[in-house]
Amino acid sequence: MGVCYLLIIDGLGVGAQEDSHLYGDEGSNTLGHVVAQTRCRLPELGKLGIGNIIPLDTVPPVSRPLAAFGKLREKSAGKDSTTGHWEIAGIGMDTAFPTYPDGFPNEVIEKFCRLAGVEGVLANKPASGTAVIEEFGEEHQKTGLPIVYTSADSVFQVACDVETVPLTTLYQWCEIARNQIMTGEHAVGRVIARPFEGNPGSYRRLSEQRHDYSLKPPRPFLPGYLQEMGIETVSIGKVIDLFAEEGFDRSLRTKSNTEGIRKIREVMSEQNQSAFVFINLIETDQNFGHRNDTKGFAGALEEIDQAIPGFLELLRADDLLIITGDHGNDPTMPSTDHSREFTPLLVYPVERAVCVELPTRTSFSDIAVSVCGYFGVANPFSGDTFFRNERNPDI
């Protein structure tokens, strides 16, 4: 058996799900709208069949796609990164992680202040990370009080200027929040340390020093299960952070998509044994989707597109490449938050799939089921495979 590469293009949705009205996301279509507004070209993803999934103005469908293609429906409640990646890994969420549209309740803030040893916090509201730093950064630098905020996602975020609060202190505060405060009914998907630097009017978030503190995933989950089955597991990008650093033999964190693409190529060049490589390329979501930067989103997609031929050249005969997203993040919509969308599914080589045009999947967990089949291990997850049975190609 070879290597399975599972590549998540963060925030890449392909149209609103049937329940999008419950999330305020009617009409969202991240990929469709980005392509329509920017006229960006994605010839290599087009060859795989991405233009066969939904109509795309500049990416026509092809008659012989190199990959099987289709759409994935998110079954779990929610639309955040943790929920998306967990469902991909076979973990279903019947109840969404808690969110705080009016800010955190007094008991949460009071407990955080007491355990962190601070007199108070600034902000305590849903906000864009860049906007909240501009609004409260100067007061933070004068008082030393941490900026605590959330978003539409299930997150408890703490932003501090590195000259005002040492990184070690910021990380310690976030560990306190994760382990002693944001538990039980307040068990958010992630606690995030958001360091920044600069002066009023010119603050800069230090994304390379950001740190996410996720909940520990319930077992079984795909990377941990494969690890138990003796299959090497590798994380590239932020994936390991979304699983509380569990389930991976190796992790390669990245500061940019450019670095992520380089590390993918390095692993493909060096990997000489069966393995599962779980990858996240984050800039589409983090740098552009959340900032309504449609042109930037398109540029990030084009960079990924240009890397595809290099990936395919490095794949060995038994290797597998799956490309998908974890939710939507339509930069053309008024919101700066994630959107409840179908995600694309591309499976290369096409011969491994049950058919070229795959039926819309009922759950992201179909990926976990299919990957177990690829490695020939018993499947503990709910869902349906999209692979042929190796012993009976007609199944």
Polypeptide structure, described:
The protein has helices spanning 30-38, 43-48, 50-53, 81-88, 106-116, 129-143, 167-181, 222-228, 239-242, 257-270, 283-288, 294-314, 366-375; strands spanning 3-9, 68-72, 122-126, 147-150, 155-161, 190-197, 204-205, 211-214, 232-236, 250-252, 275-281, 320-324, 343-348. The chain is of the alpha/beta class. It folds into two domains: 3-91 and 217-375, Alkaline Phosphatase, subunit A, CATH 3.40.720.10; 106-214, 2-Layer Sandwich (Alpha-Beta Plaits). The strands form two sheets. A seven-stranded mixed β-sheet has the order 2-13-12-1-11-9-10, with helices on both faces. Strands 3, 4, 5, 6, 7 and 8 form a six-stranded mixed β-sheet that branches. α9 (239-242) links the parallel β9 and β10. α5 (106-116) packs across α7 (167-181) and α10 runs parallel beside α12 (294-314). Mean pLDDT is 96; it is low at 390-395.
Average of the residue pLDDT scores: 96
The total number of structural domains is 2
The main pleated sheet reads as: 7 strands, mixed
The fold-level CATH name of the largest domain is: Alkaline Phosphatase, subunit A
- The CATH superfamily of the largest domain is known as Alkaline Phosphatase, subunit A
Low-confidence stretches: 390-395
Name of the top-level CATH class of the largest domain: Alpha Beta
Which structural class fits the helix and strand makeup?
A: alpha/beta
The rough form would be described as globular
Oligomer: single chain
Number of helices: 13
**Radius of gyration, taken over Cα atoms and rounded to an integer in Å:** 21 Å
- Taken in chain order, the helices and strands follow as EHHHEHHEHEEHEEEHEHEHEHHEEH
- How far from one another are the termini? 19 Å
Q: Which architecture of the largest domain would the CATH scheme give at its second level?
A: 3-Layer(aba) Sandwich
Q: How large is the share of residues in beta strands?
A: 15-25%
Biggest sheet strand line-up: 2-13-12-1-11-9-10
The count of β-strands is 13
